[in-house]
Amino acid sequence: MWYYVAGPAAGALLSVIVWRYVKVTAFTKRDTGLCNRIVKVLAPFLVECFGTFMVTFTWLMFYPSSLSALQDQAVMYMGMTFAVVYAGGFISGGHFNPAISFGVFIQGKMGFLNLLSYLFWQVVGAFGAGTVCYEIFAASPVPSVGGGVTLQNAGIVEGLFSFMLVFVMLNCGTARANKGNR
Fold first, then answer.
1. pLDDT digits (tens, 9 = 90+) for 55-110
2. CA-CA distance, 61 to 104, in Å (whole number)?
3. Is the Cα dihedral 81, 121, 151, 170 positive or negative?
4. Among the four 44, 141, 164, 175, which has the fewest Cβ within 10 Å?
5. pLDDT-above-90 percentage for the chain
């Protein structure tokens, strides 16, 4: 039963270290020292990596074994998405999804090099989540398309949900009229 104490204690300790160093360094005038300057530059990318990790990890951990579990998965996914956007969105923009970063780039709100950096760190975060899930379950965490669903239909559904995700993010996070939402 040691893991009921060690797991939360380790998570809390890591959270305090990250919060105190990344958040405080990224938003203060503390620019003395090479390490502080590096953290200021890397903070948005590290937040994107971690946020993407958490959203992907949540999705994979709650991958439904039945159709009735799909609702629980959606609730957990949205809850984690809201949590990481609230916790780190003011540092990185809260994309946590390559589709959102691409939409923000097309909108002209992000430069090409930033897009490439965001995409790289988002892939690192998602790959890390998949690796952790693989180690936990000793099986591939990559879900397959469900029975009776063609790859073409799966692509259409992905396109529709990506449209809605990016549309909401552009309207809530980058629109000038919603400046207070950022």
1. 888 888 776 555 566 667 777 878 888 888 888 888 888 888 898 899 889 888 89
2. 28
3. positive
4. 164
5. 14
50 burial via Cβ count (<10 Å: 0-12, 13-18, 19+): buried
Q: What angle do CA 151, 156, 161 make, to 5 degrees?
A: 125
Q: What DSSP letter does each residue of 69-122 carry, written as one string? A: HHHHHHHHHHHHHHHHHHHHHHHH-S--SHHHHHHHHHTTSS-HHHHHHHHHHH
Cα dihedral sign, 114-115-116-121: positive
The two structure tokens encoding residue 154: 């799966």
Nearest-angstrom CA–CA distance, 94 and 96:
6
